[in-house]
Amino acid sequence: MKKKLLALALAAVMVLSLAACGAKKEEAPAETPAETPAETPAETYTVGICQLVQHVALDAATQGFIDALNEKLPGQVEIDSQNASNDIPMCSTIVNQFIAADVDLIMCNATPALQAAAAATTTIPILGTSVTEYGVALGIENFSGTVGGNISGTSDLAPLDQQAAMIQELFPDAKNVGLIYCSAEANSQYQVDVVKAELEKLGYTATLYSFSDSNDLAAVTESAVAASDVIYVPTDNTVAANTGIIDNICRPAGIPVVAGEEGIAGGCGVATLSISYYDIGYKTGEMAAQVLTGEADISTMAIEYAPQFTKKYNADICADLNVTIPSDYVVIE
Fold it and tell me: Relative to the CA of 55, which of 6, 74, 130, 247 has its CA 20 to 30 Å away?
C-alpha cells in the first residue's frame, strides 16, 4: 500500500513539473530603439542686389559679394541680382521690388543704389559697397563711421591726398589740372573737392568740370582738355561706364588722365592709386552672412575700408603719351 501511495505521489509531482514547464513565461516587450532626431534643415535666405551700372569695378564688387555669401552660407542663399543700367530712378524701382518680395537683405552697389534703398526701407538690412563716403551719401553730419539703423557696408575711398601727390610725382611740371566728374553723384563731388584742395596746396591750378550725364560728357571733356595739362577723374560711375569717350578725346590731344580707380585707369588713364573692388565686395558678403545669421547687429556695424592700395599704370596709354612710370607701380592687366 505504501509503495502504491508513493508511486501516486511521484506521478503527481511529475504532472505538476510538466505543467510548469509547459506554461510559457510572458515575455517583456522589446525595447523600441530611440529615434534619431532628424537634422534641422539649414535656414535659407533671399538677398537682393541692386547694382547701379555694369562696369569693371562694380562687377568685381558684386562677384566678391556673391562668392563670400556662397562660401559662408553654402546652398542657403538665393540671390536676385538686378542692374539699373545707370538709370538712377530705376534703382528705386528695383529696391521696391525687393521690398515687395520681402527679401532678407539688400546689397546696394554704388551710392545711388544705397540712397534709393535708404529712402525705401528702415527695416530690411541694407549693406552698401563701392560707396565712397557714407556721411555724404546719406546726408549724415559729423559722420563717425557707423550709420546705425538698418545700414552698414564697405567704402571704396582711396587716400585722396595720395592721389593728388601721384599727379605731382608723375607730372611735376604741369600747371593746370582739370577735374572731370558727374554732378549727379554726391560722392564724386566730395572727391573732386578734396583733391582740388590738395592740388592747390601743391601749387597747381585745379579747375572743376562737371557733367550731368553721359550725353554731355564729351563736350565737358573737350573743354577740360583745352585748358589742362593733366586730367583727374574720381571713382565716378558714369565716367567708369564711358571711359571710351574720355580716352578718344584725351589721348589724341596728348593729355594724360589720372584716375581714382583701376577700372577707369584701364579704360582711359595713365595711372591710379586703387583698391580691389573684389575685396570690398567680398568683405560686404562676409558682413551679410553675419547679419543674416544673427551673428552681428547691423545697427552697430562700422563701415569697413579697403586694407591696402596699389599704384598701377596703363602700359599702352603710357607708351602712347611717353609717360615714364616709377618702378614701384604695377601694370594693369
Answer: 74
